[in-house]
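In this supplementary section we document a worked example of the pipeline. Step one takes a protein sequence of length 78 as its only input; no multiple sequence alignment statistics are reported here. Step two produces a three-dimensional model, which step three serialises into structure tokens for compact storage. The input and output of this example are shown verbatim.
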Amino acid sequence: MNEKLADRGPTLLRRLGLSPLAVAALALLAVPRVIAHDLGLVDPGLNLVLVFALPLVWLVVVLARRVGRRSCCAGSRA
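The serialised model returned by step three reads:
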């Protein structure tokens, strides 16, 4: 029974397509923008660039890694 459970579920890395460290690094990209905005260190123009640049980084990383349900779960169908 334990062997079935061990073989059944994909690992965290396989489900996410990225290591947990990479996900944390991508999430931490927003921290400087939030702090700079809250402290008023950036003008609205630069803040706007930072607002849209960070999601673009996420998109580039995701598309480069081709993270998706198809790639992670194709082998698990019986």
